[in-house]
Amino acid sequence: MKKVNFGGTVESVYERGDWPVAKLQEYFKRDTLAIIGYGSQGHGQALNTRDNGLNVVVGVREGGVSWKQARDDGWIPGETLFSIEEAINRGTIIMNLLSDAAQSQLWPQISPLITKGKTLYFSHGFSLTYSEDTGVVPSKDIDIILVAPKGTGRSVRSLFKEGRGVNSSIAVWQDVTGKAKEKAIALGVAIGSGYLYETTFQKEVYSDLFGERGILMGALMGIFLAQYKVLRANGHSPSEAFNETVEEATQTLYPLIGEHGMEYMANACSTTARRGALDWAPIFEETTMPVFEKLYESVKNGTETRKALEFNGRPTYRQDLAKELREVDEQEIWRVGKVVRSLRPESRR
Ligand SMILES: NC(=O)c1ccc[n+]([C@@H]2O[C@H](COP(=O)([O-])OP(=O)(O)OC[C@H]3O[C@@H](n4cnc5c(N)ncnc54)[C@H](OP(=O)(O)O)[C@@H]3O)[C@@H](O)[C@H]2O)c1
After folding, report:
1. pLDDT (tens digit, 9 = 90+) per residue, 170-210?
2. Model pLDDT, residue 349
3. What confidence tens digit (pLDDT) does each residue in 218-237 have?
4. DSSP code at position 24
5. Residue 20 pLDDT > 70, yes or no?
6. Among 58, 49, 57, 206, which Cα is nearest to 125's?
7. Nearest alpha-carbon partner for 103 in 56, 69, 135
8. Is residue 125 within 8 Å of 148, Cβ to Cβ?
9. pTM score
C-alpha cells in the first residue's frame, strides 16, 4: 500500500507487487471462487483467476450465449461449469457477475444459497446501493466486498495476458470476519488489477453511471453527432465532417491526452487552434454544466437505475439493445467512419 498525492489530496493505493502469485495461491488455498455469470466481466475475471492458479468454478444458465462461451473457453460441465445454484453451493467466494438486471431478478432464488461463512463479491455498487429498487438485501452474517475494474472485461483479460493490469476500485459493504478489505485487495490482484483505489459502493456506482452516460459514452455520442451535423448542414462533405470530428480526435489528439495530458496535446497543435480552444472551452463548460448536474441527480435519485432494471430485465434485452445500436451504426457519421477507416494508410498495406 502506498499513499499517493492526487492533485493535493492524499489517497491510499494498493499494488499488485504486495501480492505475488504464490501468496495469492496460499491465501485462497481453501477457497473456491464461484463466478456467477459469464459475460464481459465473468469471462475476464474467471480466466485470469484460473490462470493465477486459484480454484474457480463458473455458474451460468444452461443453453444461453454464456454457457456456450464458457465451454469454448475450456470450462467443463460437471467439473468447473455448473448451473448458477450449483456453483454457489460449491463456492466460498460468490462473485456475482450477472448483468445488473439479472442480479436483481435472480436474487430471490440465489440469496438463500449464500450462507454464513461465504463471501459475496460484486464488480459494481449497483445492486446494493439501490437495494430499494433491486430488492438485493443480503444477510448480515457474510462479508460483502467490491472490486470494480475500470475497464471492460475484455480489457481485464487482454491487459492480464500482456502482463499489464487494469486499475480497479475496491470497497467493503459489510465486514464480519475483519478480513473483508484484505480479501477485496487480494481478489482485486487475483482478477488482474495493477493498482487498486479505495471507494465505497455508493461512490463507485454514482461515478460509474454518471461517467458512462457522460463523457465516456453518452456525451461523446451526442457531441460527435452535433458537431458532424453542423458541418454537414453548412455544406461540408461527409469525409471532411468526419475527419474534423472523429478521426483526428481518436487517431491523433485523444491518444496524446492519454499519454501526456491536455496541455501537451494543445501545445502539439497550432497557436490558432490553441487560441480557439482556450476561448471555447469555458463556453462548452458553462453550457454543458446544467446537463451534467441534471444527469448526476438522475443517477442519485435512482431514475437511471430504474430505467436500466426495466429495460435490461426484459427477456429480449440483448436484441433490443442490438437494434438500437444498429440504428446508431446506420447514421451517416458512422457509415462514413467505416470508409475513412478503410482508407487509413495501414488499412491499405
Ligand atoms: N462490462 C463492463 O465493462 C463492466 C465493467 C465494470 C463492472 N461491470 C459490472 O460487472 C457485472 C457484470 O457485468 P457484465 O458487463 O460482465 O455483464 P454482461 O456481459 O451483461 O453479462 C451478463 C451475464 O448475466 C447473465 N444473465 C443475464 N440475464 C440473465 C437471467 N435472466 N438469468 C440468468 N443469467 C442472466 C448472462 O447470461 P446469458 O448469456 O445466459 O444471458 C451473462 O452471463 C455488472 O455488475 C457490471 O455492472 C461491468
Report:
1. 999 999 999 999 999 999 999 999 999 999 999 999 999 99
2. 55
3. 999 999 999 999 999 999 99
4. H
5. yes
6. 206
7. 135
8. yes
9. 0.92
What does the block give as the cell for 77?
Answer: 460441465
Centre of ligand 1 to C-alpha 278, Å, is 41
CA of 121 to the centre of ligand 1 (A): 14
- Distance, CA 247 to ligand 1 centroid (Å)? 31
Cell of 185: 485487495
Q: What domains can be seen in the chain, in order of their start residue?
A: 2-199 (3.40.50.720), 214-348 (1.10.1040.10)
Find all residues with CB under 8 Å of 147, minimum gap 6, and list them. Answer: 121, 123, 168, 169, 170, 184, 187, 188, 191, 193, 196
Which atom of ligand 1 is nearest to 318's Cα? 41
E-strand spans in the chain? 2-6, 9-15, 33-36, 56-59, 81-82, 93-96, 119-122, 143-149, 166-174, 193-198
Which three cell numbers, joined as nine digits, stand for 181? 478489505
Ligand 1: residue of 85, 99, 145, 204 to mutate (most ligand atoms within 8 A of CB) is 99
Is 260 designated active site? no
DSSP label of 17: G
Look up residue 254 and give its three cell numbers: 485523444
Task: Identify the residue whose cell numbers are 440469496.
Answer: 111
Separation of 309 CA from ligand 1 center, angstroms?
Answer: 12
To test the ligand 1 pocket, which listed residue (35, 36, 38, 40) has its Cβ within 8 A of the most ligand atoms? 40
Strand order in the sheet with 193-198: 2-6, 9-15, 193-198, 166-174, 143-149, 119-122, 93-96, 33-36, 56-59, 81-82
Which atom of ligand 1 is nearest to 41's Cα? 16
List the residue whose alpha carbon is closest to atom 4 of ligand 1.
152
In this structure, the number of other CB atoms found within 10 A of the CB of residue 312 comes to 17
Residues 59, 34: contact at Cβ < 8 Å? yes
**Which member of 43, 124, 236, 260 is catalytic?**
124
State the residue for C-alpha cell 478503410.
342
